[in-house]
Amino acid sequence: MTDTTINVGRDNLGQIAGRDINITYEGDAAYDVRGLENPYLGLAAFTYAERDRYAGREAETQQALTRLTTPGSEQALLFITGASGSGKSSFAQAGLLPALEYHYHQQGFTVKWALFRPGEKPVAALASALRSLHLAADGIFAPAAEYVLAPPLEPPPDNQISILVIDQFEEMFSQSEAAQRKAMFEILAALPLFRQSRLHVIATMRADYLRDLFDDEGLYEIGKDGIDLRAMSEDELKIAIQRPLLSMHATLGKRFQTALLNRLAKDAAEDAAYLPLLQVTLEELWRTGILTADHYESLSHAIRKRAEEVYQHRRTLDGRLVPRGEDEQQMILDSFLDL
């Protein structure tokens, strides 16, 4: 029997039922991404290296850029706040940093940036970041001098714009030693005007920690007046969902089925904290190989599926999945119960 392949719309399926044929639906090839590198990061934050895959926060990026670069009123310190999971780290690294870099390059400046998390000893972390920027640990940064373990580097060029990103600033309250926290707050409160230092400090912080800044009136006012990352609109989410695919596979004509794209955006728009669920869902959808609505259940389904996978198996260095033993599974359960 001849094996016939025809292109039809899904609505025409009933007209040809019962015939011994293979059916290729129009447009289905565009949704088939099997064998292609997965452009979605799951629970990992976007970094500067993934800036081409980041999109959807253009309005907030422009707002932050205006705050930092408007001549005569450039801010030296800017807080990026939002709920847990709202994408603060991704926004700072993959959204705002590239925008600042482009802005200053257009004016003939070079841009050098460093990122650190406070941890237990934020002043020590600051010392390392300052050195990578070729900035001396003196003046307001003098408390960091004792942590400089290597000879100083050459001073920065006259046209350098320096950017310090303090990621997960809430660690100042949850992890940092009291004396270190006090020293860091004094440094931040004494930051010189940007036009004097050519230094921007960008701090990402969970909004629920803003009240912990209250005892430092200056920092509290700056934090309260920061860029607050709220829930994205459905249109913004559609841009964010599609950008990684277009960034890595633009020439292949691959795309999301419209029904799937609309459902993903609608579900994720309900709460800013749903972004991690969306990112894991996108990663899992890509792993199925078909970007259509019938492969999607809900944002929470992907998390449940991933949790079950982590509980049942571990991945070896060569990428194989091997079953976990009972002791490993119990440790995982205990960890979840401690959250």
Molecular structure report:
- The chain has a 5-stranded parallel beta sheet with strand order 4-5-6-3-7, sandwiched between helices.
- Strand 4, helix 4 and strand 5 form a beta-alpha-beta unit.
- The protein has 13 helices and 9 strands.
- The chain is 42% helix and 13% strand.
Task: Give the spatial strand order of the biggest sheet.
Answer: 4-5-6-3-7
Number of domains: 2
CATH topology of the largest domain, which one?
Answer: Rossmann fold
Number of strands: 9
Indicate the low-confidence ranges by residue numbers: 1-26
Multimerization status: single chain
For the record, the CATH architecture of the largest domain stands as 3-Layer(aba) Sandwich
Give the topology string: H per helix, E per strand.
EEHHEHEHEHHHEHEHHHHEEH
Helix content: 40-55%
Largest sheet data: 5 strands, parallel
Q: Cα-atom Rg, whole angstroms?
A: 24 Å
Q: Which SSEs are present, and which pair or pack?
A:
Blueprint: E1 5-8, E2 22-25, H1 28-31, H2 58-69, E3 77-82, H3 88-106, E4 110-116, H4 122-132, E5 160-166, H5 171-174, H6 178-189, H7 194-197, E6 199-206, H8 217-224, E7 227-229, H9 234-249, H10 258-268, H11 275-288, H12 299-312, E8 313-315, E9 321-323, H13 326-338
Parallel strand pairs: 1-2, 3-6, 3-7, 4-5, 5-6
Antiparallel strand pairs: 8-9
